[in-house]
Design goal:
Blueprint lengths: L2 H15 L1 H12 L2 H6 L1 H8 L8 E2 L1 H4 L24 H14 L3 E5 L5 H9 L5 E6 L38 E5 L14 E6 L5 H13 L1 E9 L6 H8 L5 E6 L5 E5 L1
Parallel strand pairs: 1-7, 2-3, 2-5, 3-4, 5-6
Antiparallel strand pairs: 6-8, 7-8
C-alpha cells in the first residue's frame, strides 16, 4: 500500500465525522482556485502540472547521488515572481549544475541575470557561461510572431544587472540578439548544459530547442523553464518524444532532456 492510500485510510474516520470539512479540504486540493487569488507563489507549482506529457520525477531519482551535493544560491529572493525561477527552482537548477560540472553553459534569456549568476556560482571555476538576450535598443521586431501575453522583453534597465559587478562577471559572456536569428555556431559550443528560458511562444521554443540540440556536447543536457505551466513551452518540448529523453522535475517548472 502506498503512502497516499495509507493517508486516505487513516483519515476516513475524520472524514465521516465531519464530511463538510472533508469536502472543503478535498475540493481545495482538486481545484485550488483560492490559491490563484491569494498566493501566486504556490500557484506557480500547482500550475506547472497543467500541460505536458513528460514523466515527473524527483531530482534525486533523476540524478542518483545529487542528494549529497551542496550548492550556492545567490540573491535567492531577489527575483520577480512573474518572470524568474522560484527559489526552489533556482536551488534545483544549481544542484544540477554542481552535480554535472559543465564547463560550457549556454542560457537563452538573461533577464536580470539572477539565473546567470547562479549558473556561474555553481559551475566549475574555469567554466564559461554564455547568456543570450534581446539587445537593450531592441526595436520590437521578432523573427516569429509572438502573442502579446508571451512578449517578455525585459528592457535595458534590468538586463544582466545582478551579475554585472560581481566576481563572476569575468566568467560570463553576454550576447545580444534574437535567439531565432543569431548564429548559434558562433556562441562557443558545444555546450555541456543549455538552459532555455527566452521567448515562451511555441515557434521560439521549438527553434531554441532545435538549435540547442545541434550544439550540445556529448552527454550534455538541455533544460527548459516553464514546462507544464505554459502550453507553448510544453507542446514544443513534448514534440521531442522519440528523439530525446525528457522528464519534468517534481515541484518545479523545469524539464530536462538529453538525446536518445
Amino acid at each position: 500500500m502506498n503512502g497516499l492510500a495509507r493517508k486516505i485510510l487513516k483519515n476516513i474516520p475524520s472524514m465521516v465525522s465531519n464530511p463538510r470539512r472533508a469536502w472543503r479540504l478535498l475540493s481545495r486540493r482538486l481545484v485550488p482556485v483560492g490559491v490563484v487569488w491569494t498566493d501566486p507563489d504556490v500557484y506557480q507549482v500547482v500550475g506547472s502540472r497543467t500541460f505536458g506529457r513528460a514523466p515527473r520525477v524527483t531530482l534525486v531519482e533523476a540524478f542518483p547521488g545529487i542528494a549529497s551535493v551542496d550548492v550556492s544560491v545567490l540573491r535567492a529572493f531577489d527575483r520577480s515572481i512573474e518572470t524568474s525561477l522560484t527559489p526552489h527552482e533556482a536551488l534545483a537548477l544549481s544542484a544540477i549544475v554542481r552535480f554535472t560540472n559543465p564547463k560550457r553553459v549556454l542560457e537563452i534569456g538573461t533577464f536580470d541575470g539572477n539565473t546567470t549568476l547562479n549558473l556561474a556560482a555553481n559551475a566549475p571555476p574555469d567554466a564559461v557561461i554564455t547568456t543570450v538576450d534581446l539587445p537593450p535598443n531592441w526595436t520590437g521586431a521578432f523573427t516569429y510572431e509572438v502573442p502579446h501575453a508571451l512578449d517578455n522583453f525585459t528592457g535595458p534597465a534590468s538586463a544582466a544587472a545582478q551579475f554585472r559587478n560581481t566576481a563572476y562577471a569575468t566568467r560570463i559572456k553576454q550576447v545580444y540578439g534574437d535567439s531565432a536569428a543569431i548564429d548559434w555556431a558562433g556562441l562557443g559550443g558545444p555546450f555541456d548544459l543549455i538552459f532555455i528560458d527566452g521567448s515562451h511562444s511555441y515557434e521560439y521554443v521549438r527553434s531554441d530547442t532545435t538549435n540547442a540540440f545541434a550544439c550540445l556536447a556529448e552527454g550534455g543536457l538541455v533544460i527548459w523553464h516553464d514546462y507544464g505551466m505554459i502550453e507553448d513551452v510544453s507542446r514544443a518540448v513534448d514534440e521531442l518524444d522519440g528523439t530525446a529523453s525528457v522528464f519534468a522535475v517534481r515541484g518545479t517548472r523545469l524539464a530536462v532532456g538529453k538525446p536518445r
